[in-house]
Amino acid sequence: MSAPTQSGDAPTARNDRKVRQGYVVSDKMDKTVVVLVRRRTIHKRYGKTVTLSRHYKAHDEHNDVHVGDRVRIAETRPLSKSKRWRVQEVLERAK
Question: Of 20, 60, 74, 84, which one is least surrounded by beta carbons within 10 A?
């Protein structure tokens, strides 16, 4: 077992967070957006490519993300009953 680190050591890095990319489908809530994330996977039995989708509620501190924007979201601590993600960056603005 290693000795505890001193307070003068380099700061410890955060654990790796889950990251997803998707499109904003709703921005009607205050500081919250709903992000649709689609992923493609192979069906176990039939071998066909299947598109799966899921909605995530993500925290948007400055309300600067709007419907149609492509965003990257990152996992975070629970912020409310259903909000466990935050908007990390806007990849593409809606036209």
Answer: 74
The domain in which residue 83 lies consists of 19-92
Q: Specify whether the CB–CB gap between 29 and 36 falls below 8 A.
A: no
> How, if at all, do strands 49-59 and 32-42 pair?
antiparallel
CATH number, residue 55:
2.40.50.140
Has residue 12 been placed in a domain? no
Residue 49 CB partners (closer than 8 Å, separation 6+): 40, 41, 42, 43
What parts of the chain have a pLDDT lower than 70? 1-12, 14
SS3 content of the chain, % helix, strand, coil (to 5): 0, 50, 50
